[in-house]
Amino acid sequence: MGNDRKKKIVAVASIGGHWIQLLRITRTLESEFDVSYVSTHEKCGVMVNGHPYEQVADFSRWDAYKLIPAFFSYWKIFRKMRPDVILTTGAAPGLVALAVGKMMGIKTIWVDSIANVATLSASGRVAAKFATCVYTQWEDLSSDSIRYAGNVLNIQQ
Amino acid sequence: MIFVTIGTQAPFDRFIEMMDEIAGGMKEEIVAQTCHGTYEPKHLKTIDFVPPDEFEQLFTKARLIVAHAGMGTILSALSRNKPIIVFPRIAALGEHRNEHQLATAKKMKELGLVYVASNREELEQLIKTESLESLAKIGETASESLTESLRREIRNTP
Question: ipTM value of the model?
Fold first, then answer.
C-alpha cells in the first residue's frame, strides 16, 4: 500500500458528553482521514450520516459483565474496518475498544473526558497502562506519560 | 422558553421536582427532558428522550438552558451561545457514580463559563433573573492545538 493511502480511524464513544466531545475532535479529522464511528445508541448514528457507523451495547463499571459481549463486538468491528488508529473519549465501552485494539496491534489513543478536572478518570488510568497515547484536557493533570495539548472547549477570547 | 435537560444516563428527580415547583410560579414555558424519573411533574412539559435533531431545535429555541453539570450539555449550550445554569448531581445522593459533577461545575464556574446553583433558592433566583446572558463563546470544534497533536500522531502511524 502506498504512503498516500488515507489513514483509517475508528472513533469510539458512549452516548452523551463523551460522544459530543468526540465529535468536536473528529470533525476536524474527517478531511484528512477516513473516519468511522462506534457508539452506544442508534441516535448517535444519525449524527454521523455519511460515515460508517456501528453500535455496541452501553455499560459502565456498574455492570461490567457486559464487557464480554462488547469485547467480541469490537473484535468483529475492527476486523471488518481494519483501522490504523482507534481513538476514544471514553467511557468504559471506549476502554474495552482500546484493549481489543491493543490486542490486534492497532494504535490506540485515549482522550480523557474534560469532565475529569481533578484526576484522570478511572478508565483513563487503566488506558494509561497500555494505550499508545493518553491525553488529558487539563494541563495540571499532565505528566511525562499523560499529554496535554488543549481541550474540546476551545474558549474564544 | 426554558429548556431543562439532565442528559441521557440517569434520572434526577430531586432537580426535576425543584424545577417543577419553580415552573408552577412562572408564566414562561418550561420544557424538560426527564430520563425516566419516578417523580411526575405537574407544571413542566416533559419528554423522556430527545433525539439529536429535536434536541437541536429545543436548544435553538430556548432563551435559557437549566441542566445537570454534564459536559455534553455544557458544550452544547456554549457552542450555541446560550446561557446555562448547572445544578450538579450528587453521588452521595445516588445521582451519579462519582462526585465529578461538583468538580466540573466548580471548574466551569471558575473559568467563567456557566452559572451554578446548588440549592432551590439559588436556582430560582438565577432562573428569574431577567436577561441572563451567555457567559462565554467557544469554538465549533476542539482547540487547534489538540487536534493538530492528534493529526500528527495519526499521520505518524506505520
Answer: 0.95
What's the topology of domain B2-155?
Rossmann fold (3.40.50)
State the DSSP H helix or E strand holding residue B63, giving kind and residue range, or none if neither: none
Asked if the Cβ–Cβ distance from A24 to B53 is below 8 Å, we say no
**Span A8-148 CATH architecture:** 3-Layer(aba) Sandwich (3.40)
CA angle at residue A93 from B13 to B54, to 5 degrees? 50
- Who's near A35: CB < 8 A, 6+ residues apart? A9, A11, A26, A29, A51
Cβ atoms of residues A83 and A51 within 8 Å: no
Q: How far apart are CA A152 and CA A20, in angstroms?
A: 9
**What is the rounded CA–CA span in Å between residue A122 and residue B98?**
11
Tell me the pLDDT tens digit for each residue of A59-88: 876 677 888 899 999 999 999 999 999 999
What are B102-124's pLDDT values in tens digits?
A: 999 999 999 999 999 999 999 99
Contact call for B51 and A154, based on CB within 8 A = no
